[in-house]
Amino acid sequence: MFNQVLKLIRIPQWIKNLFVFVPLVFSLNLFRADYLLTSLIGFVAFCLTSSIVYIINDIADVEADRAHPKKKNRPIASGKISVKQGLFIALIFGIAASVVCLFADLNFVLLLILFFLINVLYSMKLKHIVLLDIFSIAAGFLIRVLAGAVIINVAISSWLILTTMFISLFLAVMKRHSELEVVAEGTSAETRKVLAFYSLNFADQVATVAAAGVIICYALYTVAERTITVFGTENLIYTTPFVVFGIFRYMFLVYMNKQGENTTHLLISDIQMIITVILYAGVTLLIIYGPF
Q1: Which one of 12, 115, 190, 193 is most buried, counting C-beta atoms within 10 A?
Q2: Helix/strand/coil (H, E, C) string of 106-117?
Q3: pLDDT tens digits for 224-283?
Q4: Which residues contact 248 (CB under 8 A, 6 or more apart)?
Q5: Residue 72 DSSP class
Q6: Residues 29-66: pLDDT tens digits?
Q7: CATH 1.20.1070.10: does it fit domain 12-156?
Q8: pTM to 2 decimals?
């Protein structure tokens, strides 16, 4: 039962909540204990809330998941955890999130509530509406970044906000591409109604635009006057190749290796992606906080 609960709350998906730490890193406060602790509170709040969302989504999608070759093994779809048990676990996590929020800024709490409401709307309605489905996913990432800034009371660059929007749109539409391929190959029943309004060609074009948006916005962020002034260096531009490689590597894995349905699994299982992320993080921290 415990293992099924762990599968239900999807701990690996908590990696998405690391976006809460983006403002902390780029505000030069990463090594300040008070700021780090406050951001950690925000991270925990988002982890608890996102798990509630996953439970609600699994309950809403139970019939569709049972028709999917992989999702049919999810705890609620497989019947190993009942709907009532799932709702009880969600309630426990809701209480825990409320307690954590007692230590957070009111504006952060409002953003967290907005995150929850958008995701519930996504589970119930928005995921069935073409384009609004991927923009809803993007909104979740944007809210994480904005909440991360609000909770430690720092400003965040508009270019970073745009980069976050484009990278989340990119990941969302690449996921749709992978789902469309599964349907096209006839290996699964169509589990998302919205897929009927997408085509592989359209998804690919949107992915190309989003990928270009990520690269352009991040590159402009690294050379922006405000960025250079804040960090006292122009060297952040040397982190751009890691971003470009990461985007291209992800596209290769989706287009050539037919991966991408599970974004988190792809990111934490591909050695080249892991190395790229580690190198990007290391070089970025070295430039921002080091002598370069």
Answers
A1: 115
A2: HHHHHHHHHHHH
A3: 999 999 999 999 999 999 999 999 999 999 998 877 667 888 888 899 999 999 999 999
A4: none
A5: G
A6: 999 999 999 999 999 999 999 999 999 999 988 887 78
A7: no
A8: 0.92
For residue 69, which of 192, 182, 180, 188 has the smallest C-alpha distance? 188
Give the angle 222-223-225 at the CA atoms, nearest 5°.
Answer: 115
Indicate whether 189 pLDDT > 70.
no
- What's the rounded Cα separation, in Å, for the pair 269 and 181? 21
Cα separation of 83 and 180, whole Å? Answer: 29
Greatest alpha-carbon pair distance for the chain in Å reads 57
- For the record, the structure tokens of 184 come out as 């096209």
Which residue from 8, 16, 94, 15 is spatially nearest to 58, judged by alpha carbons?
A: 8
Cβ-Cβ contacts under 8 Å for 68 (sequence gap 6 or more): 188, 189, 191
Is the pLDDT reported for residue 222 higher than 70?
A: yes
Residues 6+ away with beta carbon under 8 Å from 101: 45, 108, 109, 112
Specify the pLDDT at position 101: 95
- Tens digit of pLDDT for each residue in 251-267? 999 998 877 667 888 88
| Domain limits, the chain | 12-156, 157-292
